[in-house]
Amino acid sequence: MTTSSTLRPGVVDPGPPAPRPPRRRGDGAAALAFLTPSIITFLVFVLAPTVGVLVLSFYNWNLLSDGTFVGLDNFDRLFHDGRLLGVYGSTTYMALAILAVNVVAGLLLAVLLETRMPRWLRGFFRLSFLFPFVVSASAVALIWRFLLNKDLGLVNYLLGLIGIDRIDWLGSSAFAPVSVIIVNSWKTIGFSILVYIAGLQSIPNELREASIVDGANAWTRFWRITFPLLSPTIFFLVVINTINSFQIFAEPRVLTQGGPGDSSRTIVEYLYDRAFGDFDLGYASAIGITFALVLIVLTAIQFWFSRRWTFYS
């Protein structure tokens, strides 16, 4: 036992450690009761469907007859499907564009909204950007389908006022994916702005004030202070928007039905067509599994690269 004589001068003996409070008999049951709804939800809506899709990918099943075990034939078909590579290409093009708009334009708009302006005006802009995010994707797509109509749409009418010919936004292979990008970005950018604003408000004002005293201009303050401290927020939005943008379905489905051709078709839409259009659920399951693996690999790559530029204070 340590005595006060063995301690350094001025150091008070803390005494023996306080005993741990006894665990009550009902603590484990209470914890299990609180966790049960989450466990049941995970088992029913996540684990069971995942296992079901994995098993189904080894079968040939059309919903009407008994499934036939085909082994890896469905995965072999992936390498001989001429449309699949094109659909992956169109999905990647639209997803990267949507990602860039949400991450880059969202940051610029968030910084502008945090500048000095009347509080009521700032609240108005925040609500304006966030409102489309809470509206269903199908409703947003239906509204924009009317706005982008070649003959009666408001967008072409406004372009005509400045001398630009009508654009076939929904019927052209060049502009159909652009339409999907515009609509999805308009709907989802509000979430990115909201997260950015939360990140900006968490940066201590003392750092900005000290940099102003040191003579740093606005760009230097952003690049040396705001961006490093905001990098975890940027990384979070990059990961979330990558996953979400690769999984878009409602916008291309309602706006263009994936056409013309496969120019605006996404992997999720192609999977849906194979499953419920051709009733080829085994092959659709194989597409879904490989697509999930692609997203996992992309997320892992982003986490690996984040070590080089993400700063955690």
Automatic annotation (TrEMBL):
It is a multi-pass membrane protein. SUPFAM superfamilies: MetI-like. Residues 1-25 are annotated as: Disordered. It comes from the Bacteria. Residues 88-302 form the ABC transmembrane type-1 domain. One of its GO terms (cellular component) is plasma membrane. The keyword Cell membrane applies. GO terms for biological process: transmembrane transport. It is found in: Cell membrane. Belongs to the binding-protein-dependent transport system permease family. This is Sugar ABC transporter permease. It comes from Acrocarpospora corrugata. The lineage of its organism: Bacteria, Bacillati, Actinomycetota, Actinomycetes, Streptosporangiales.
